[in-house]
Amino acid sequence: MDLGLAAKVRPCLILSDYPGDFSVMNILYPRIRRAWLPAMLRYSVLGAVLAGLYGVLHDQVTYSISPEYFTRLKFSQFHYADFGLPPRVFVAEIGFLATWWVGFVAAWFIARITVPAFPRAAAFRHSLRGFLIIFAFALAAAIVGYALSLLHGSDYSAWADLASTLGVLDLPSFVRVAYIHNASYLGGFIGLVAAIIFLEILPSPNISS
Known about the structure:
Elements: H1 3-9, E1 14-16, E2 31-33, H2 37-65, H3 67-77, H4 87-117, H5 120-150, H6 160-166, H7 171-200
Parallel strand pairs: 1-2
Helix pairs in contact: 2-3, 2-4, 2-5, 4-5, 4-7, 5-7
């Protein structure tokens, strides 16, 4: 196989100091100037922290709805983070661990748009707006998930095997929290898409640094 052709089709990340036009980034070849990388990483860390804090608050609410969702399921999934602290502290740890990476990845995609396209202050401001869009969608989806769970009806036969395996006693509450958690992740993804579209259509100055 021609090595030149192989190099053309191999996905990679290009770090460059070339001051040319980076307004269009190929998905397989995201061209990122080294000067942009520190800001992108800072925004990603900020996104991780904000998402983690959101997860802490989110799981405190859902723990109040169904403690069994955590004691019968999540506690075992995150057993490595159990340091013998009170249950709500462990729930907070789980909330952070389950969401920080989502915020990191989402913020990275947002930063790839804002950092190259805007001056520093504007990039930070627009990145925060992108974060807000994602959190708004995630929260709205969680509320919709809870509303749908209330319309579930009394037939939980589809959940019977799982309930038996985990030893769940209050199955309706368990299902409500399952709906909320799944809807939250879906809402976060939809929010990221919406944030990317919003940021892409913003008029941006032609900057070279």
